[in-house]
Structures are given as structure tokens and as C-alpha cells.
Amino acid sequence: MKVCKFGGSSLANAAQLNKVIDIVFADPARRIVVVSAPGKRHSGDTKVTDLLITLADTALKGENTDRQFGAVVERYAEIAQELHLGDEIIREIEHDLMDRLAQVASLGKAEFMDLMKAAGEDNNAKLVAVAVAARGKKARYASPKDTGMVLMGEFGDAQLDPSSYARLSRAFSNFDGIVIYPGFFGYTKEGKVATFPRGGSDITGSILAAAVCADVYENFTDVDSVYPVDPRIVPDVKEGIPTMTYREMRELAYAGFGVFNDDAVIPAVRARIPINIRNTNHPSEPGTMIQQSRRVVPGTVVGIASADNFCNIVVDKYLMNREIGFGRRLLQVLENEGVAYEHMPSGVDSQCVIIKDQYLPKEKEHRVVQAIKRELNPDNVLVERDITIIMVVGEGMCYTSGMFAKACLALASAGINISMVNQGSSEVSFMLAIRSKDRDMAVQSLYKAFFS
Ligand code: ASP
Questions:
Q1: Can you tell me which atom of ligand 1 is nearest the CA of 8?
Q2: For ligand 1, which residues put their CB under 6 angstroms from it?
Q3: Which of 4, 91, 193, 224 has its CA 20 to 30 A from that of 237?
């Protein structure tokens, strides 16, 4: 059995929905279909989830919601009319939205917001089930409540209650036909609607794939595959990545590979379910398969990722290596200020701490530097801003010497200075820190060195 998830752009209009149904019908193993809310039809368009947020905000302000309500219904009506699905489903969606809006006074703000946001996927799943049935196959909508998708944590940022796996597995143990399941939300133990973070339909798909031990989790989106480098930086990248391992995926996602929400894959990865990223618009393309292991060609790299907005605290002190507790006290300063750190590369008499810019605003920087001076009495402390991290990733690097030299040579030839390097013990990646102004040139040079 395959669990497939279709994102908002795959369900933005009737033509797209027909493509989705073609894909589902093309393989009888595609039995569980997770859907997002309808997304953008064109670049200037608004996603249904965003329309719902505006609708909820208007209701919370106590203002008239007719226009915002109409904008949401219109999106579903357009699809239903074009596919000749009849009026009944639209009436049902209208009633559902009215029921939700009526709860504005009785729920807290965050609870109400989640109730409204969840309407996007919930109603879309109902509409898609009607559309699949209209094309002649047995299909039913399944609700997260009835199947036991229990969430916990904060509204808008909820997580799965792990006890849900057993319930979901039972709920899907015996069914026929195709199940259409809404992504993005579940219910708290108290029965309130709660949503995952934005983009959370990917998480729903991953959870269901794990719960039913699917053969594969197919994630249909609008790219042919995952590319080895960001096409905005290297526009002529053509070849996608055919297979990559979970480890490679994790390292690339860390440095901002945008195709997949990193958290979303956790349930599927833990259950060792292969994840296949595919394109709804080119269903014959095999896409990218992400799995536990793959055949590796020594000396190859799978991808190069870059992430901006880091800073680097550099602490120098002569004979630092002999001072017991230096690292602990340095980290204690950060802990006292509630600052999370990313990496801690060190030299003989220097220690760097790489931090995301957002965790070290200017006023905190001042306090941190003062505390470091007080606690550690260093020769020098310096905070460098505008740091970009580049990750070069590939299982194939483990077996080959000279990979790092190749990267350094590529950057040196482009006249780019490397501020810091870090290679974990896994050897599946190495990390370079450079000045953000050099990012594009650095990524282009590395891509040329490893891929052409
Ligand atoms: N519709 C939700 C969003 O726009 C969830 C999703 O599409 O995955 O964030």
C-alpha cells in the first residue's frame, strides 16, 4: 500500500484535481490520499489557508465576515462547478464554515484560529472524495477525529500524541476503496481541533505512512525532484537527485533545502518508510527517493545547501587548551541568556560558537560579550555577522580522499575566503562558513567542482 500526499498547488483548481485523480487511479496501491487545502492557482493568488486566516481574524475583530466567507466558498465552488459535482457539496462546505464561525465567542483565540485553518483541508478532503467517486471509484472521506489522530502541545504548532499510531493503524486495518484524508490537523484529548505548523499536511502523510507501514510515502508537489543545489542560485541545474539517504536528507534540510519540511519526515524516517518526492504535473518522472540506504558511488556528492543569517562568536585566549572548564563556562554564558547554539568548532587557542542571528539580537550580543569577558578573561572576543553556512553532503564522500581539498580549491579559485570549517565524524558532510556576500559565487563554484 502507498500513502500519497498532494500539496496545495496540486489541488488549486479543477484541472489540477483531475491530474491528482489520474495519478491515484494509475496505481491500485495508492489507497490513502492525504490532501492539503487548495493552494495558489497562479503567482499572485492567495492560498485557501491564508483566506481562512483572514476570515478568522475578521471574525475575531467582530467585523462583518461576508466578503471573506464568500472568498473561501468561491474557491471550492469554482472546482465543484467545473467538475459538475452538484451543489450539495458546496452547501455542506458553507454550513461547515458557518458552524465553525459560530464558535468565535466560545473558544480562545488560538483554538478558534486552528478550527478555522483546519477547515481548508477538511472541506477539501470531502470535495476530493466526491470528485473521485464521480469518476467512478469507491472513495470515502476519513476524519482525523474518527481515526484517532490525537495531537498535543500548542495550538498552531501541535505534535502527534504517539498513542495515535496504534489507533490509526487499527482504523486503517480493514478498509476498501480509496480513503481521502485531510492533512494539517487533528484533535486534542479534549476534542478541540489543533493544527500542525504551516505546511503540516506533509506531517499527516508521514504519520499515516508510518501507522499503516506503507511500502512508500509518495509526496506529490510541483517539482520533478529534489535538486542537488538551489535552482535560484544555479539556474541551469537540470538533473535531479534520483535517490538519497535519510542522513543526506537531514543534513541538506538542516542547511535550508526547501523542498521538504524537515520535521515532516520524522515519522516516516523512524518507521523506515521510503519517501518519494514527485511532481503532480509530470507523473511519469520517478522523482527523488529518500530511503535508509542506497548504492553509493565513491567520490560523489549528493547536494550542496546553503543557509544565511548566522553569526559567529570568536573567543581567543592563549593556552586555552590547558584551562579546565573553559568550554563549559562559555556555553553557560549562552545558556544564562537563553541562546541556542549550532556548532562549536575550535582551534588551539580559539573557540568559535556559531549561532543563528535571530537568537543573538544586538542587545543580547552586548550582554553575552560582557559576560564572556567577565567569566573567561579572554584575550579577544569578536562577533562576526553575515555568516552563511554551506553544507556539502554525500554518503560517497566517506570512501574518498580529496573531497575537502576539491571544495577548498574551488573556493580559492573563486577568491572566496573560508571563515571556518567543520566536519562531523560521520563524514557524510562537511560544513564551510563564509561571508554571506560570497554565497552565490561559492555555491556556483562548488556545484561546478562536484557536478560537472
Ligand atoms: N494548508 C496548510 C498551509 O498552507 C497546510 C499544508 O498545505 O500543508 O500551511
A1: 7
A2: 7-8, 36-37, 47, 49, 120, 183-184, 198-202
A3: 4
> How many Å apart are CA 292 and CA 87, to the nearest integer?
47
Q: Count of CB atoms within 10 A of residue 340's CB?
A: 11
pTM: 0.90
The string of DSSP letters for 129-178 reads HHHHHHTTS-EEE--HHHHT-BEEEETTEEEE-TTHHHHHHHHTSS--SE
Cell numbers standing for residue 261? 519540511
Q: What is the pLDDT of residues 164-212, one digit of tens each?
A: 999 999 999 988 889 999 999 999 999 999 999 999 999 999 999 999 9
Which atom of ligand 1 is nearest to 37's Cα? 1
Q: Which residue has the cell 508537489?
A: 221
Q: Is the pLDDT of residue 306 over 80?
A: yes
The predicted structure's pLDDT at residue 250:
87
d(CA 403, CA 449): 10
For residue 47, the ligand 1 atom closest to its alpha carbon is: 4
- Residue of 47, 52, 203, 222 to mutate, ligand 1, most atoms within 8 A of C-beta: 47
Q: Identify the DSSP state of 392.
A: E
Closest by CA position to 47, among listed 96, 9, 82: 9
Q: Which atom of ligand 1 is nearest to the CA of 202?
A: 8
**Looking at residue 419, what is its pLDDT?**
87
**For residue 305, how far is its CA from the centre of ligand 1 (angstroms)?**
24
**What is the best residue among 34, 40, 49, 208 to mutate for testing ligand 1's pocket, by most ligand atoms within 8 Å of CB?**
49
Query: CA nearest 33: which of 25, 44, 24, 41?
Result: 24
